[in-house]
Amino acid sequence: MRLLIISGPSGSGKSTLVRHLIGREAIPVAKSISATTRPARPGEVNGKDYFFLPKDEFLRRRAAGEFAETNEVHESGVWYGTLLAELQRIVDSGRTPLLEIDIQGGLRLLEEFKDTLSIFITTASPDEFRKRLSSRGSESPEQIAKRLETAERELKLAHLYSHQVCNDSLDRAVDEIVSLFKSHWK
Ligand code: 5GP
After folding, report:
1. What fold does the segment set 3-184 form as a domain?
2. pTM for this entry
């Protein structure tokens, strides 16, 4: 199974990047919708942004082997995971699943799925992360501090991905991912 994995610290702008990448329809990908136990943010829709699952259901399905990977992110007790059925649904539709997941989850999938293009999104400066995170307004100062800590840890693992793409210019970053995809799966 082919997978396109996109990771990067909170505040690297990866969600916007992924939205533009999919919107452009230049490559046959579809976003894999993850499951999570965190509550939906305002405007988020169940089944579109995430499958929002109660923790007991998430853990039951995890124990039943329904996930390709799971991770408890930010030491907050919140679980995220990629459902195998979701990946299969996308493959059956003739597309490559695009996974916007954290680096621990990504690295786990890299071990298991060999035909994978893995891209780590960076921005030029750590200050930029901080600015973007704070301006989002959806997290408390403690949550922001935790995410920054996670970002620093993740940056140290970035070299394990096959490519790094700097997101300082959105259009250029989207172009770069499109050409990486096309050259990887000629
Ligand atoms: P958020 O709560 O801001 O939507 O996402 C928080 C973090 O969870 C992000 O780093 C995101 O990439 C990661 N994430 C989202 N879905 C998954 C998933 O299915 N698996 C893993 N391992 N991480 C995920």
Report:
1. Rossmann fold (3.40.50)
2. 0.89
